[in-house]
Design a protein that fits this description.
Elements (H helix, E strand, L loop, with lengths): L3 E5 L6 E5 L4 E3 L6 E8 L2 E7 L2 H12 L1
Antiparallel strand pairs: 1-2, 3-4, 4-5
The structure holds zinc ion (ZN).
Length: 64
């Protein structure tokens, strides 16, 4: 293990790796920032966008 953990972006479904135990990551594909939840030091999942307001704004723009 390299000390990196893979997570999947909930916005664009891109998989990317993140250093262990960071609480905020940015998707390299769509640049959405995500808060992570860590189950242990090798298992993480995307919990929520950094800002719901900005996330919803972005989603609205895509739908237009
Ligand atoms: Zn993304």
């Amino acid at each position: 293990m390299e000390g990196k953990v893979e997570v999947r972006c909930r916005s664009c479904h891109n998989r990317f790796s993140t250093p262990r135990l960071v609480e905020l990551v940015e998707c390299p594909n769509c640049h959405q920032k995500w808060k992570l939840k860590w189950f242990d030091d090798t298992t993480a999942t995307v919990l929520a966008p950094e800002s719901w307001v900005e996330f919803q704004k972005k989603m609205k723009e895509i739908k237009k």
